[in-house]
Amino acid sequence: MTMLFIGLLVVMFVAALIGGGALFAARATGFDLAQSAARAGAQQIDTATYRATGQLRLDPAKAAQAAKQFLAGAGATGTVEVTTAKITVVATSHQATPMLARFGYDTVTVTSTASATPTTGPPA
User: Fold this and answer.
1) Could you tell me if 94 and 108 are in contact, meaning their C-beta atoms sit under 8 angstroms apart?
2) Distance between CA atoms of 48 and 41, rounded to whole angstroms?
3) 77 bridge partner residues
4) Were both Cys, which of 12, 30, 58, 94 would link to 110 (CB 3.0–4.6 Å)?
């Protein structure tokens, strides 16, 4: 009887450990999604201003559109805030958690925030 109880405890511990890993992975995926959407928006620079003055600025309308398209393509929703210097994306996604389905958690909702700025190349 004691072995059965210990075995049950071990199985529950392993399930909780794997479930916690699934939650951690879902959060990492959500943050990656927000970062990628922000980077997609940060690639939309105002080329006319850049060619005329050499000043690197975002085209707010194009940047917001690119970020929202990226989110939609990934099956996520979110808000986008753009200035000429920076884009900030708040992404909300639903990540599957198959190991937690037995406990009533088929998916977890993840909301992450990331920002990006336009650059002309990799940092020196």
Assistant:
1) yes
2) 17
3) 92
4) 30
What amino acid occupies position 79?
T
pLDDT range class, residue 23, cuts 50, 70, 90: confident
- Listed residue (57, 35, 37) closest to 47, CA to CA: 57
Encoding tokens for residue 79? 């808000």
Dihedral over alpha carbons 30, 36, 38, 44 (to 10 degrees): -160
User: pTM of the entire structure?
Assistant: 0.79
Summarised one tens digit per residue, pLDDT across range 58-87 is 999 999 999 999 999 999 999 999 999 999
52 confidence band (pLDDT: 50, 70, 90): very high
Dist CA 32 CA 11 (whole Å): 31
Q: Are 31 and 112 spatial neighbours (Cβ–Cβ below 8 Å)?
A: yes
Mean pLDDT estimate for the chain: 88
Q: Cα dist. 74→55, 82, 92, 122 in Å?
A: 32, 20, 11, 26
- 29 contacts 108 by C-beta, under 8 angstroms: no
